[in-house]
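Bench notes, afternoon.
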Amino acid sequence: MSESVIRKYTCDVLCIGGSGAAVSAAHMASAAGKSVILMSKGKAGRSGNAIMVGGGFGIDGYSSRHVLGELEADETYTPDRLMERIVKYSFYLSDQRLARQFVTDAAPMVKVFLRWAKAAGQTMLFSPKGGLYAVSGNCIGRTIAQGIKEIPGLTTFSDVMAVDLVKDGDRVAGVIGLDLYTGEYIHVEAGATILATGGYQPYTLKNTISEITGDGMGMALRAGAKVADMEFLLYIPTAVEPEFLRGSIIPYLFTIPIFMPLSFRVVDGSGGELPLRPPFDKVPGSNKAMKLIYSSFWSLGTDADVMRGGLYYDYSDHTDEEIIRAFDHFLAHYGHWHPKGKYNGYDMIALRDELLRTKRLQFALGNEYSNGGVVVDETMSSGVPGLYAAGETASGVFGAFRAGDGLAEMLAHGYRAGISAAEYVERAGMPGSTDLAARQVVNEVEAVLKRQGSCRSETLLREINRCADEGFGVIRNEAGLEKAALALDGIARKLDRVGIPDQDRRYNLDLCHYLEARNLLLCVTAGVMAARERRESRGTHVRSDYSAVDQAFLCRICLQLDGGRLVTSRIRPDLSELPPPGRNYSDIHAYLAEIMA
């Protein structure tokens, strides 16, 4: 094993992440006159969940018209109406100070984002009727990359995996990263650190980026921060077959008539139909609430393993001509961003021909988004001095269900986090030397490299995925959650026995998987603990043994490390603007029917 090399850099504000929240934060911190470093596990601007966007993004109509200049936008759809929607669909777990920050700060950062898009030559189509900009993932990625180019003096480290935060006393003061290609350690000493590394995805079936392993949440927990809402994970239809389509979000896009004007029936493997009950059968497919409606109805109506497959769109009611016309419509829309006949590299003509032959498309319910994350206030501060979180790494805006836009969220959070971090450095100055703390992190990694253990880290990652599939899926109960908790305890014991066969740090997948597994294990354990404590159904947390929406659980379940073990506590979300309902509901569908009426 080569001698460990530590390269040290210093900046005012460090942004960890390579997508919209991190780049927005870097932009705002730089605009405040601070030196900024951006560290990304992948290629900055070409990694993270934002590049998987398949539909669009938007804010309220009033801001669209008066801030973004979209004169056809519906100005009666005000920030207050958007906030009310977010809070109600959050099942009142949205922290209303954070919801207010979201509807206030999204517009100015979206304006900057649109300017970057124009400079990058990207097409973003505004739809007055829907109030959304239609985009694609590659369009978003190129726009973020343009933003990186426009930040003056920005130092960017791509393909550098953040290992752990370093502290000066109780203050977070930077990070140790591992350059995946050179094997060198990158020590960044920073006045303030912003975590914008995305969420966590615990399941076997991936529909976004497989490395979404909760790295920022894991680092924040080890630095003393809290996480909350980890039980709330959002699911969308994800392709299982044909094999060339596996993991694609195309089945989700097919639920939205403005993209794919072709109706379908949903059936399970035995042919049993899984219809939506009134009033939900009349809700437009473009309504974000449909993600929750679909996943709950389809899961509760069958014994199929909905996390792995066994669900089908049945198009047998349609003629071949109708299917061909619908695919032509889909391809005409996405032709703005993708080569002819393609979507994100998938051969749509081959898919069309498969549907003409079988009239079926198999899918599962894949995890799109995690509502949980680091507990922050409306300034994006974690409560640990010097540490901020933004985007999907943070929690609090969307509560039990995300009714707002995820891309707008990362822009709004990054906007405020960059401002707040710059103000913190102005007040607190730079930390003392963190060289000893950095060396301690490096020594811990080096000790793992020297192990000749009996377990492979990739095997543990797959075990975590299977554990989540089986006990922490769309529909939960105490028996399944208890089984998952026991399995996770066993995986935790194995983590200390992981061996790294190759001691070369350069692109060492075993080492990378170990670092990811320890973060993902923390996140899934936190999610299972919160799900066991929440003995009700609320939002995307649906329990077959506790179906009611119970106002005794109108609280956020927080987790924090204490002596190396996670412990739970409860906090009440801020409810200062919109009071919650004063009664219980028989199930989530009764609640949704009332707020959608």
